[in-house]
Amino acid sequence: MGIILKNREQIELMRESALIVSKTLGILAKEVKPGVTTLQLDKLAEEHIRDLGATPGFLGLYDFPNTLCMSPNEQVVHGFPNNKPLEEGDIISIDCGSFKNGYYGDHAYTFEVGEVSKEVKKLLKITKESLYVGIDQLRLGNRVGDVGYAIQKYAEDHGYGVVRELVGHGLGKEMHEDPQMPNYGKRGRGKQFKNGLVVAIEPMINMGVKEIIHLSDGWSIITADKKPSAHFEHDVAIIDGKPEILSTFDYIYEALGIVSDEEKPYKNTAPVLK
Ligand code: MG
Ligand code: MG
User: Fold this and answer.
1) What are phi and psi of 217, to 5 degrees?
2) Is residue 273 part of a domain?
3) Are 46 and 27 in contact (CB under 8 A)?
4) Span from the CA of 271 to the centroid of ligand 1 (angstroms)
5) Helices and strands, number each (H, E), in the chain
6) pLDDT by residue (tens digit) across 73-83?
7) N vs C: which end of the chain shows fewer Cβ within 10 Å?
8) CATH (domain of 155)
9) Distance 58 CA to ligand 1 centre (A)
10) pLDDT, tens digit, for every residue of 168-205?
11) 168 in helix, strand or coil?
12) For residue 171, is it within any domain?
């Protein structure tokens, strides 16, 4: 298919789609707690996405049956919502897509359910940090391998496993466009970045080994050693040679009372005209 670069107008439409997902994850952040089922959260997300004039991006895509991919604990990604209540100490990776004005939004966050262990907290922290380490490499002249290398090195330096079989991707009128954006790689290798590239960067990092197992339902993927796995994803455009994050975790942070300036270097800083 080749890489489809986007102009400013198209990027603004994509920002709208991304922010619909961001707002939806913000709504879910308030509801993720022991006792709630992932199916309840799925219904809530679908309603909210439709209220915002969009359609769920995953529903029906490759025949996926729900609005959200819900992957608790040792599940890596692509899990189905179900009727099993979340339990204290679980983590739940929620991946959400939207479709509006012909463009997709696609981003993800791993939530803590009640109080989680120190070990798990660290996995979430390092995985999220690896996302920004990768995003920082989305600069004019850099290459696909620079992003993967940065994420892999950051995660492996902390002793974690980097999933190989699943990767980030270009985003636009299709949910998955070129280029593929692996979370591992070699510096200076792969396609070179240009302005107007829009990609979903999404490290999937395992507390233990990098190997995964595909379950017989055809979708769910778990870690081979059954240790927890985390997943964070942002939609990012290269504008004026630099990465700009189109999605945001701000709605989640607002709901959870978290203060963070991690996105600040990658936010739209265009001067406001008076
Ligand atoms: Mg996603
Ligand atoms: Mg994605």
Assistant:
1) -75, -5
2) no
3) no
4) 31
5) 5, 14
6) 999 999 999 99
7) C
8) 3.90.230.10
9) 9
10) 999 999 999 999 999 999 999 999 999 999 999 999 99
11) strand
12) yes
